[in-house]
Amino acid sequence: VQLVESGGGLVQAGDSLRLSCVASERTFSRSYMGWFRQVPGKEREFVAAIGWSFDNSNYADSVKGRFTISRDIAKNTVYLQVSSLKPEDAAVYYCAASIRTFSNSDKQYKYDYWGQGTQVTVSS
């Protein structure tokens, strides 16, 4: 299974973007999906997660109220709406999928599949 992200780009502080992630196989069975981000020299950090067939969601404190994760099962796609962007939001954003339980969905080890990432650059 391949996860392919898109939607990144160069924006100004305060702008919005919608990141998308589609899985290569429609019948791919997953429990939930998440977004992480990473800047050079730092650990990859959790951003948000959402159940694939249930409505649980989870957000990092740093993005609550600004970012929204959603999914469209018919399109086999998970989205991350990123709003009120700050320079510190600049990173490579990675999509991930898990076949495990939703507990600790903010931990990288809970995810089984990863995309290649999409770059978000924020100018101040």
Kindly provide the radius of gyration, computed on alpha-carbon positions and rounded to a whole number of angstroms.
13 Å
* Strand-pairing-aware structural class: mainly beta
Mean pLDDT score: 95
Q: What form results from the Cα inertia axes?
A: globular
The low-pLDDT segments are none
Largest sheet: 7 strands, mixed
Compressed to H and E, one letter per element, the order equals EEEEEEEEEEE
Q: Measure the end-to-end span.
A: 37 Å
Number of helices: 0
**% residues in beta strands:** over 45%
Helix content: under 10%
- Tell me how many strands there are: 11
Can you describe this structure?
This protein is an all-beta fold and 124 residues long. Helices cover 0% and strands 48% of the residues. The protein has no helices and eleven strands. It has strands spanning 3-6, 9-12, 17-23, 32-38, 45-51, 57-59, 67-72, 77-82, 91-98, 113-114, 118-123. Strands 2, 4, 5, 6, 9, 10 and 11 form a seven-stranded mixed beta sheet that branches. Strands 1-3-8-7 form a four-stranded antiparallel beta sheet, with no helix packed on it. A hairpin with a 6-residue loop joins strand 4 (32-38) and strand 5. The radius of gyration is 13 Å and the shape is globular.
